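Good morning C.,

I know you're traveling, so I'll keep this short. The sequence:
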Amino acid sequence: QVQLVESGGGLVQAGGSLRLSCAASERTFRRYAMGWFRQAPGKERELVAGVTWSGGTTYYADSVKGRFTISRDNAKNTVYLQMNSLKPTDTAVYYCAARGESLVGIARGVSEYDYWGQGTQVIVSS
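The tokens, ready to paste straight into the viewer:
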């Protein structure tokens, strides 16, 4: 069982930056594709960025392309989401998630991820 703990959320003005971190409890994390999802009030949870187990392939939702960067450090069992040029529409609870199947690719569906963090709130003020 992999436990994921997010950190780095907070309140920021539009145009600002935040860096989210997600620390995993197990070394098996290194074999899993990871995703950062977000859920705004009244909306469905959506994938904003994903990264393969090796870090070699990434995915970004159109709404964050060019502004967000996902990366991972397998030696530290940690995945990051660097968020720049933040907009009020980025306000949401952000979750990191791990696919439970080793060495498979990024998936966009919530049901494709087996392990979830507790979420971290990001609020972008205008």
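Safe travels,
E.
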